[in-house]
Amino acid sequence: xxxxVPVPSSRDLxxxxxxxxxxxxxxxxxSDPVRLRIVRELAAGGVALSCSHFDLPVSKSTTTHHFRVxxxxxxxxxxxxxxxxxxxxxxxxxxxxxxxxxxxxxxAAGRQADRHGGT
Amino acid sequence: xxxxVPVPSSRDLxxxxxxxxxxxxxxxxxSDPVRLRIVRELAAGGVALSCSHFDLPVSKSTTTHHFRVxxxxxxxxxxxxxxxxxxxxxxxxxxxxxxxxxxxxxxAAGRQADRHGGT
DNA sequence: CCCGTACTACGATGCTTATCGTACGACTCG
DNA sequence: CGAGTCGTACGATAAGCATCGTAGTACGGG
Lengths: 119, 119
Prior knowledge:
The structure is a homodimer of 119-residue chains.
Chain A: H1 23-30, H2 33-45, E1 49-50, H3 60-72, E2 76-81, E3 84-89, H4 91-97, H5 101-115
Antiparallel strand pairs in A: 1-3, 2-3
The structure holds a DNA duplex (30 and 30 nucleotides).
């Protein structure tokens, strides 16, 4: 087996394993407007995005905080790539644990954004 | 401008109208284990239930608080019937605003309860 | 080796919330 | 009327959380 050492950065981040993800935690993570917006952008793109890609109405420290909440609740996966920290939705894990939930949530968020002004 | 109506003998309760219900509020309401449990029982029964029907691991004041959060977020509808206060899921409103969401949430909660010990 | 970029860690702050107990109001039934 | 049941209101408390600024660490490129 190709013991491909995947560039073991000294900076790695604690993620919950699939079985540790709790629905309450996911809902709490998504109940914040800033975090919901992040997740919507990640889902729209379909690819991992760096933190700095997002233009959020909060400071950089607060942005870090929100990304940590999303990671610790199991909604996103984070890993470093050079100086950039890449963020990706944990679609596989969430779809396995809670089939259909993520799509319903994203659809609901989209409908609400359409009704009101993208908020 | 609101000519403060005295509201003399009324025991009626403020509910958000359908259009005021916000996804973030609903998710926040359901991110508490006690409230999620209440909603699951309401959905399982399919009918309105009195507050006292629930055997929750919190005090009576706290129970009142949780029911109020659910009502103000638009998840349940409450009305008095004699001394009892009846609680019913706002299925029609939620399904109209966020089609499929409530069912996905309930299914997700059910699966999680199965995996772990009914928690 | 130094500098700029990307992000974090820490401490502070003010707001929200989950919790409780106690005292009270509304209703029903004797 | 009086007692019991059901639920509320209020005040207190402790914890949580969203927010910020500042100072610092890791990495990549000149």
